Amino acid sequence: MARALVTWGGWDGHQPDLVAALFAGWLREAGVAVEVHDTLSCFDDPARVTEFDLIVPVWTMSEIAKEQALNVSAAVAAGTGLAGCHGGMCDAFRANVDWQFMTGAQWVAHPGNDGVEYGVRITSGHEVVAGLPDFGVRTEQYYLHVDPAVQVHAVCDFPVVEGPHSVNGAVAMPVVFTKGWGKGRVYYNALGHQANVIDHGVPAEMLKRGMLWAMRR
Questions:
Q1: What is the CATH number of the domain that holds 52?
Q2: In 3D, which of 50, 60, 106, 109 has the Cα closest to residue 82?
Q3: What is the pLDDT of residues 49-59, one digit of tens each?
Q4: 106 in Cβ contact with 144 (< 8 Å)
Q5: What value does the CA radius of gyration of the chain take, rounded to a whole number of Å?
Q6: Among residues 39, 43, 133, 196, which is most buried (max CB within 10 A)?
Q7: Of the candidates 32, 34, 30, which has an alpha carbon nearest to the alpha carbon of residue 58?
Q8: How far apart are CA 194 and CA 74, in angstroms?
Q9: Using 50, 70 and 90 to split pLDDT, how confident is the model at 217?
């Protein structure tokens, strides 16, 4: 049986406990054995981290020890999958460049804050989005600094809310992307400010597919 590690903590505003429970429930429904932790000490033992087929971090604006980040990086490079969403993966540890290099992006802004209405467009035929329609959301719109090596599968258009970035014109910002890290697969979805953004519809389906895609084969 495949094994997944879901770990949550950090900023309470992202409801990490509820999002982690959502992810754990989906994985169990798919027949995966899931461990859920509310501490980063689950990354302390490099051999044990590598035993998992999937790691799902749900942390925002927190701090990780360099050794813990490197243990996860080594596990993913050896074949463990990594999947996550919103600030829970790509604003998890702002001070750790090892984490950012592995995950493929870092949050830098959400112009207009919460409650922005915008569209998400599917841009590839990859299995994490194949057959899914474009859709609209009302939530934070993430502006990310993104690794040019990622494969983008859905985007949103900036600017929606005017700001100093608007003078640069239209920008198609990745919402869903995948990348490789050694033998491992990495999946990211920028949606998920709170659990009710991703617990239904196309966002839920994309995340379910993304976690299972990233999981070690």
A1: 3.40.50.880
A2: 50
A3: 999 999 999 99
A4: yes
A5: 16
A6: 43
A7: 34
A8: 30
A9: confident
Q: What is the pLDDT of residues 135-156, one digit of tens each?
A: 999 999 999 999 999 999 999 9
Mean of pLDDT values over 201-216 = 98
Give the containing element (helix H, strand E) for 121. Answer: strand 116-122
Question: C-alpha distances in angstroms, 101 versus 24, 84, 109?
Answer: 25, 15, 19
Q: How many domains does the chain have?
A: 1
Residue 40 DSSP symbol: G
Tell if the pTM clears 0.90, that is, is over it: yes
Count Cβ atoms within 10 A of the Cβ of residue 87 and give its class: 0-12 exposed, 13-18 middle, 19 or more buried. Answer: buried
Domain span holding position 124: 3-214
Strands 135-139 and 81-85: unpaired
The whole-angstrom separation of Cα 116 and Cα 45 is 41
- Written as one letter, the residue type at 216 is R
